[in-house]
Design brief:
Blueprint: E1 2-7, H1 13-26, E2 32-34, E3 41-46, H2 51-57, E4 68-77, H3 85-93, E5 107-111, H4 122-138, E6 152-159, E7 162-168, H5 194-204, H6 207-213, E8 219-223, H7 229-236, E9 240-244, H8 251-255, E10 259-262, E11 275-280, H9 286-298, E12 302-310, H10 316-331, E13 335-340, E14 348-355
Helix pairs in contact: 5-7, 9-10
Length: 358
């Protein structure tokens, strides 16, 4: 049995499992999800044994609820805690990668799911990584220096005696341990919500796209801006921002220049001329938000956007699918959508919409 290992936010395992199952079936791949609520990860197993084909059919950037997507190599349970290294070497040397010889990995990440149960394993993960790294190099399984072009070896600790081995394709997985970019809240940020937009730009755009699409002098609207967290992120990028909210903005954001505060309803306001960006983090029914965001594109009010959809407590994958379908249908333009439940999101997802081909 082979398949995928995906990390997610604790409590959203059913949503990730449903997403993987639906998308795999649509791509013609049989399989099933194995998970427990609160575990922070999902294994999607395929009896056909074609993990590589399944992985290609489910690219990481297309997944909404997966922080990380890896190809499973081995499940090592009940290992001798006096020697965890030998079973790892044996599994890799036995040719655990689709029945072929294990590659020389470019990097090693020893990690654990982001769950209450697994967090105490952080110290063990560090110690195991320090011991395993030289052993892998001696066995010819790990490059002498980190090589970002080669596949990464991920060792996921589920317990002291239970390890999952997985492969991370550098072109089709998150580059950060546990799939989480480590961002620090800047002392000048008006609110913690600033981290959501910073993470969205970091994870949903690549380096070249950020350079092209976030240039100083561009124009943007922040709908529901107060107290100004998302406006502040745009301002720091050099954009000219119309901040739309009846509530107040932090004074230092207004004093920083390039921001016009419009005391209006962000859900009704429309710009007098087309803008480069629209961002929106308003608390509203997700289908209503999706429809309003589509209006912005249909009417030509913006070229690209980032917006959040606040999800209900149940059937969240179904609601996500419906909202993305509403947006795509009503926008009436060829757009590329990238949606993700970010680390700094809670009961919501963040959506990036950009013109196709950008």
């Amino acid at each position: 049995m082979s398949g995928l290992l995906c990390y997610c936010r604790g409590g959203f395992e059913p949503e990730l499992a449903a997403e993987l199952g639906e998308r795999a079936a649509a791509a013609g791949h049989a399989g099933y999800a194995v998970t427990e609520r609160g575990s922070g990860f999902v294994r999607f197993l395929t009896p056909a044994g074609d993990a590589a084909g399944l992985s290609r059919a489910l690219p990481w950037r297309s997944l909404v609820f997966a922080r990380q997507k890896l190809r499973l190599l081995a499940d090592l349970d009940a290992v001798d805690t006096r020697d965890r290294i030998a079973p790892v070497l044996a599994a890799l040397q036995a040719g655990a990668v689709d029945g072929t010889l294990a590659p020389r990995f470019g990097a090693l990440l020893v990690e654990h799911p982001d769950s209450d149960e697994a967090r105490p394993l952080a110290g063990l993960a560090r110690a195991l990584g320090n011991a395993l790294r030289p052993a892998l190099r001696k066995a010819g399984l790990l490059a002498a220096k980190d090589d970002p072009r080669r596949p990464r070896l991920h060792v996921c600790l589920l317990a002291g005696d239970h390890l999952l081995l997985a492969l991370g394709d550098p072109a089709d997985s998150a580059p950060w341990p546990m799939g989480v970019p480590r961002l620090r809240l800047h002392p000048d940020a008006p609110s913690r919500s600033a981290l959501k937009l910073e993470e969205a730009f970091l994870t949903l755009l690549d380096d070249g796209e950020r350079a092209r699409l976030l240039r100083p002098g561009m124009t943007a609207a922040d709908l529901g801006a107060a107290p100004g967290g998302w406006t502040w992120v745009l301002q720091r990028a050099g954009l000219q921002v119309s901040s739309v909210d009846n509530g107040p903005l932090r004074q230092h954001v207004l004093d920083g220049g390039g921001v016009e505060h419009l005391r209006e309803d962000g859900f009704r306001w429309q710009p007098p001329r087309p803008l480069d960006w629209m961002v929106c983090d308003m608390v509203e029914q997700p289908r209503r938000v999706a429809s309003r965001m589509a209006t912005w594109f249909r009417e030509g009010w913006c070229r690209q956007a980032v917006f959040n959809l606040k999800l209900p407590m149940k059937k969240r994958w179904l609601e996500t699918s419906l909202c993305l379908d509403i947006f795509g249908r009503e926008a009436g333009l060829p757009l590329e959508l990238r949606a993700r439940q970010l680390y700094h999101d809670r009961e919501e997802i963040t959506v990036l919409a950009i013109p196709t081909g950008r």
